[in-house]
Amino acid sequence: MELLDVVVIGAGQAGLTAAYWLKQRGLEPWKDFVVLDRNEGPGGAWQHRWPELTLGKAHGIHDLPGLKLGTPDPTEPASAVVTRYYGEYERKFELPIERPVRVDTVESLGEEPDAPLEIRAGSRTWRSKFVINATGTWTRPFVPYAPGAEQFKGLQLRTVDYWCSDDFAGKHVVVVGGGLSAVQFILMLEQAGATTTWSTRREPDWVEDPFDERWGVAVEERVDARASAGLVPHSVVRNTGIPPWPEYLAARDRGRLVSDGRIARIEKDAVVFESGKRVASDVILWATGFRPDIDHLAPLHLREPGGGVRTTGVVQVDRDPRILLVGYGASASTVGATRAGRRAAVTALERLGRSSSAG
User: Fold this and answer.
1) I want to staple 306 with a disulfide (CB 3.0 to 4.6 A). Which of 51, 79, 87, 231 is the partner?
2) Which of 4, 265, 40 is nearest to 152 (CA)?
């Protein structure tokens, strides 16, 4: 079996960025590197977003290197815009993407620090000197434990299950989570004729600072501090907060975006809050974030006692220099994914002794 220099796992924002720089700086597609993507087509996690999330309402769709997104219609679904954009990007730069490929495990073929890695996906295998892991978080939605959740007779769904607000017209929905998705769900449900109650663990984190590059760098630094310590990364909202956009502030002022706090327990037809308030409910929507999709890396024993993967320089894994993590920690959001993809590619090239081909 031919030994590749690099296998990139994931063809979202970070994975495509890494692939672009690998090619631009001298690696030959298919011969030196490939990209394995679990989806049927281009678009990364964006292709799975609900149609009501239009480009104008989406937070942080960033340009990929070498090809600007341009100015698409802001009323078009973000899923359609990004799918088209990523597809054009893959074709323009002739990136070596194989799909659909769902990676099961990444294992070392020896005890030596530079032993080849074997990437397995069903009956297929690839061998490589380095792996750039860009699998993100979309496939690992997190639902916290809530006493009594198993006896709820209504519908429970997660962010990844949400599709159309009209499905909830006339129903009462408890939206759980303090992030931007929860905020958007509440506003969409209101427009569709549903009533809502908002549950968050802490008071919603409204921020006054503009969501600009300086803010993005500060967010990255906070998240990277935990990853550098080998701790489990905090949720995105804990580091970013909710922007003071007029639409959000107006909803807060009319009492729609006001949290009732933590859930104490769930009954068969209601949610009871720690305040004692009981809310009859038809639906519970768990917009409670995600965890990194890195279970396939478990054979390499990358986790620290703190539960996380310790990284240096955002992407470099301390326990195994053959693995470069993007879409993890500080690069788990669109703010840092492009920079991290480039950094991972450059780091891999340096370790391969190919940095002299940089242009």
Assistant:
1) 231
2) 265
